[in-house]
Amino acid sequence: MVYMNGSDLEEDCGAATADITEMIRALDGMKEDPPSLNLVVEMGGAASWQLPQMQGKGHEYSRFRLTDQGVEDMEYMSLRNMGEPETLTDFINFASQTYPASHYGLVLWNHGAGPVEGYGSDSNFDGDSLTLSELRQAVSTSFRGQEGFDFVSFDACLMGGIETAACLDGMADYVIASPELEPQDGLDYGWLTVFGDEEFGKTEPVGKMAGEAILDSYESWYQEKGQDVSVTMTLIDMEAYDSFHEAFHPFLAALPPDQREELFEKLGRERQSLRVFGSRRADTFSEMVDLMDLMDACRMVPEQDALYMELQDAVKRLAADTAGSGQKGGNHGPDTAASGKMEDTSGLSIYLPSGSNVQLEEDMGIYEHAGFCSAYQELMMDYAAYLAYDEEIFWENVENGKDGTVCLEISPEELTEVAGAYLAVFCDSGNGTDYYMLSTDSDVEIRADGKLQAVPEKSYPGLKGEILCLIETINLESYTEYMAPILYNGRLCTMDISFDDEHEDGEIRSIVPVENSRQGTKEVYTLKEGDRICSLYPFAAMEEASETSQTENMPADAEIDLDKHYYRGKEIVMETPEDMRLELVEPETDRCVYGYMLVDLRQKIYFTEFTEL
Predict the structure, then answer these.
(1) If we measure between CA atoms, which residue out of 236, 231, 277, 242 comes closest to residue 153?
(2) pLDDT tens for residues 186-195?
(3) Closest to 331 measured CA to CA, from 315, 307, 352
(4) Around Cβ 138, how many Cβ atoms within 10 Å?
(5) How many alpha carbons lie under 13 Å from residue 91 in its C-beta half-sphere?
(6) How confident is the model at residue 563 (pLDDT cuts 50, 70, 90)?
(7) Letter string b/e over residues 55-73, b meaning 16 or more CB atoms within 10 A of that residue's CB
(8) 461 and 583 Cβ atoms separated by less than 8 Å
């Protein structure tokens, strides 16, 4: 069964139609005689379609069966909301009754946004999605609710979280999903040919063999196409979920309630060391982090140590396999980890709220009904209350120090509220009032007495003479990752850049669109010849700078006024491979002023005053 919510993915680029073509090609390419396989599709959720059978008035919503000859048994229906659980339930019932089988699989195709916004975005119904509680309702009340599916696969971004596994507990043998963004092409449906193998289902469970085929084809698809993009896909063995929860719940319960605030402060200080998933804007923090990174941070008392080891083993069994580039996982997860990501990932995400989220109260109300572990729900509700507490940071004036340093003084008491300090380089936009941030640097000396000092760099990473505004997102001992806001071929995006021992001069990892939507974009790009890049630099108004100048965050789905929030650099075109390599670019120092960007324990961002050198 393929539940294909076309949305803007079909409207803008015909992605659903392309995948239907892939499926037909796979059915046609199976070995020997076609197997006893029924591939049943329900299509809707888009205002327009490239598939010929879906064009024309009254043809926007349909059910059909795919064969090696193409679309058959087409049934047109009136528009339905694919974000309603009853719509998915009815499709499962229809497919189960019309095409009874010995084994069942369900593919959920569209956008994904993780445990809060859930799966799907129906363009015909204001982008309505299925929350995890609605998804569980849809499957549990269907004819497959008791016996379940051999596998459930998400061809959607950000659905590879532990909350998704909890949602489908008891209703699927295996779940295949990505904790990360998917590239626009999503899954390679050549994996369907596994159903034509003579040994299919004889040596291993059907769900496992299908899942392994999905992972193998997903990884090789982008390699064969020469697209050097980061891909991640996890095969979750649902038989191991109970043992995971039996370790997870006691581990969290062992944390004494009177140490929770100490834990919350620790999470604030260590947030930049947690592996994160999904896209983000310059003023926000990702709320999906690596499961075992977070659990490692939650180790507060000796009583948790043995439970942590049990939890670690349980996660390895749960995340049975993860598709990627062949990097070896460390203590956290399976033998293979995510392509294009750091080593030692668990292969599963978990929700960790952030104080930068202006919709935090609303989101926690949704998350509370996700059906995940009660101990974690309680802990996160307390954490959300901690994040909502209105605390501000105060400091003394920024001054020039000796030897060209930029100095800032904060009282030791205020310093305990600071999670991160970055020297920020600002540039005059030309009117003497509006300044834009050119770059940030975390190489700051922070003394116990509250004195901060840093030496401005003489040059900053950029492309073809244009400096990129690097904002740190992850800081590990051997790996640092930044995001830089850009216009990529005229579209607002972030460029992800990393530095490690192998790439000391930096490596451009990917380019991800920034949408005024909370759904994952299902678009990940790599820089190529012909691309147009325009660096964007966040504005900071000099006259508004004060001892409590805290940034004003926007809702994740708010429309972004580029000219209000960003200064636009010069547009450059990637003409040769050399153009796509990072270089060091010297700024016009006579236009630069210097200050600090501070991040507090609740992920609120502050800018200090500026000073000239």
Answers:
(1) 236
(2) 999 999 999 9
(3) 315
(4) 21
(5) 33
(6) confident
(7) eeeebbbbbbbbbeeebee
(8) yes
* Residue 533: other Cβ atoms inside 10 A: 25
3-state secondary structure of 280: coil
CA distances, 102 to each of 206, 432, 458 (Å): 10, 73, 67
Q: Classify residue 386 by burial, with Cβ atoms within 10 Å: 0-12, 13-18, 19+.
A: buried
Query: In a 3-state reduction of DSSP, which class is residue 187?
Result: coil
Enter the tokens of residue 612.
Answer: 């000239």
- Taking residue 445's Cβ as centre, other Cβ atoms within 10 Å add up to 12
Q: Which tokens hold the place of 69?
A: 């000859």
Rg, the chain, Cα only? 25
Instruction: Residue 45: name the closest of 79, 77, 90 by CA.
Output: 79
427/537 Cα distance (integer angstroms): 9
The pLDDT of residue 184: 82
For residue 70, give the 3-state DSSP assignment. strand
Q: What are phi and psi of 131, to 5 degrees?
A: -70, 170
CA gap 53, 394 in Å, rounded: 63
3-class SS string, 563-585: HHHEEEEEEEECCCHHHHCCEEE
371: left (phi over 0), alpha (psi -120 to 50) or beta: left
Q: Amino acid identity of 357?
A: N
Q: Which two tokens stand for residue 367?
A: 């998350």
**Is 295 within 8 Å of 346 (Cβ atoms)?**
no
How many degrees, rounded to 5, is the angle at CA 556 between CA 108 and CA 515? 65
Phi, psi angles (nearest 5°) of residue 534: -130, 115
Distance CA 354, CA 351 (A): 10
Residue in this structure with the two tokens 């954490």, named with its chain if needed: 383
Amino acid type, 442: S
For residues 225 and 486, what is the distance between their CA atoms, to the nearest angstrom? 25
Q: Is-contact 502 480, C-beta < 8 A?
A: no
Strand pairing partners for 426?
437, 593
DSSP SS3 for 282: coil
Q: How far apart are CA 444 and CA 456, in angstroms?
A: 10
Any idea which residue has 């129906």 for tokens? Answer: 122
The confidence band for 228, taking pLDDT boundaries of 50, 70 and 90, is low
Which of 207, 210, 179, 182 is CA-nearest to residue 196?
A: 210
CB burial string 493-527: b at 16+ within 10 A, e below: bbbbbbbeeeeeebbbbbbbbbbebbbbbbbbbbb
Cα–Cα distance for residue pair 177/135, rounded to 1 Å: 15
Could you tell me the end-to-end alpha-carbon distance of the chain, in angstroms, rounded to an integer? 65
Torsion sign across C-alpha atoms 241, 247, 249, 251: negative
223 phi and psi angles, rounded to 5 deg: -65, -45
As given in the structure block, the two tokens for residue 327 are 């990097």
Residue pointed to by tokens 């605030």? 261
pTM for the full predicted model: 0.91
Beta bridge partners of 462: 467, 583
Q: Which residues are CB-contacts of 593 (< 8 A; sequence separation ≥ 6)? A: 425, 426, 427, 428, 435, 610, 611, 612
In angstroms, the CA 557 to CA 515 distance is: 7
Closest CA relative to residue 488, chosen from 507, 457, 467, 510: 510
- Token reading at 520: 């994952």
Q: What is the per-residue pLDDT across 42-69, written as a single tens digit (0 to 9) for each?
A: 999 999 999 999 998 889 999 999 999 9
